[in-house]
Design brief:
Largest sheet: 6 strands, mixed
Number of strands: 12
Helix content: 25-40%
Radius of gyration: 18 Å
Strand order of the largest sheet: 1-4-7-8-9-10
Structural class: alpha+beta
Distance between the termini: 35 Å
Order of helices and strands: HEHHHEEEEEEEHEEHHEEH
Number of helices: 8
Number of domains: 1
Length: 275
């Protein structure tokens, strides 16, 4: 087993990013430390995916307007309300009218039934400007939409620090608006593993996923094992589609327990099947 105790956070991040690329099959979008105008909806990436799935420019433009409207925060629309509006569009699609008098159509933002038709990407050091500039360590994108944020700590720093950092970032005076599309919020290190929740979840309610199976390339690295259990493409889409609920003004995510063991799929396929 690699001795990771005391290694820098940069080393942890490098291993995580490499694992997402080479093992879980995510595209590397880049280090966005110096990139301008980073967003929770990368319009070029989303437009390219939608074009490849048969939608024309006019439909895409109207869909982007509806998605932007859903994700907008305001005095009467707090983060959870905006996040719910976006989640419904991710889950059911966006209803748009091509032209006056024509039947409305549903634009699918994620192909839930065919995970390998979706574009999974990962960006690191994503600079975001609010009242205070913040820089999440890793952001997961599906078809150009930010759906996951991961804060990493070196092995000698408690994972609780990453949880608190995530919660701070969701404050109005930090980068709250970025989390309007985010469905999964995570923090981890290589000695304690991974903790996960959804937006606005107090620290005491963050969860740990416990499962025997993990990708063999994760070895004994606890963080990589648990990332492989939650973030492989098939599992992640099923997780987001079927195990997130809104209870009034509170958003909740499932716990790995006896109540979900019979319904939550076991890990079978790790990579895109051969053509």
């Amino acid at each position: 087993m690699m001795n990771t105790v005391g290694e820098t956070e940069i080393g942890t991040q490098e291993r995580v990013v490499t694992f997402f690329q080479k093992v879980l099959g995510y595209s590397y979008l880049g280090n966005w430390h110096a990139r301008q105008d980073n967003s929770n909806v990368e319009k070029d990436l989303l437009t390219n995916w939608l074009s490849g799935n048969g939608y024309d420019d006019e439909i895409i433009t109207k869909m982007l307007y509806e998605l932007e409207k859903a994700s907008a925060l305001g005095s009467n629309k707090p983060l959870v309300a905006a996040n719910r509006a976006v989640y419904e569009q991710l889950h059911y699609g966006v209803n748009v009218q091509p032209n006056t008098g024509e039947h409305r159509i549903t634009v699918k933002l994620i192909d839930w039934e065919h995970p390998f038709n979706d574009d999974f990407g990962i960006a690191e050091e994503v600079t975001l400007k609010g009242e205070y500039t913040k820089r999440p360590d890793v952001v997961l994108y599906i078809n150009g939409i930010a759906i996951g944020v991961l804060e990493l700590k070196r092995s000698t720093v408690s994972v609780s620090e990453g949880i608190r950092q995530n919660l701070t970032n969701q404050r109005e005076d930090f980068i709250e608006r970025f989390f309007a599309t985010v469905q999964l919020v995570m923090a981890g290190n290589e000695t304690q593993g991974l903790r996960y929740s959804t937006i606005k979840t107090p620290e005491k309610y963050w969860l740990r996923w416990k499962e025997t199976d993990a990708h063999p390339d994760a070895g004994n690295n606890l963080l990589l094992r648990e990332l492989s259990q939650i973030c492989n493409k098939i599992r992640l889409l099923d997780f987001l589609h079927n195990f997130i609920v809104f209870d009034g003004s509170i958003k909740k995510i499932c716990r790995r327990s006896l109540t979900t063991l019979t319904t939550f799929p076991k890990i079978v396929d790790w990579q895109q099947p051969s053509q």
